[in-house]
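Worked example

This section walks through a single chain of length 95. The input is the sequence exactly as stored; nothing has been trimmed or padded.
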Amino acid sequence: MAKAYPKEFRDDVLAVARKGDAAMSQIAKDFGISEGTLSNWLKRADIEDGNRPGVTDAARMESREKDKRIRLLEQENEVLRRAAAYLSQANLPGK
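Given that input, the structure is written out below as tokens.
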């Protein structure tokens, strides 16, 4: 999924919002985004900065890579299990 706004834009919006000079609704309106989007960006930024508990983007990407690796290893293991079963059937006496 592509991100709708460039990182630089989000960083600019967050910088203005963190100054606290204007209400969130006004900042969102000025930048042409919804209040919910701004709120989500602020929450994510706080998590990334360590000001709020949660999973960082780096941890999320690491977890995703681990999940991919686990799936691949499980598929490889299944192939080997099936190959072993097939080969053991081929070596039975009387065939």
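What to look for: The first helix runs from residue 7 to 19.
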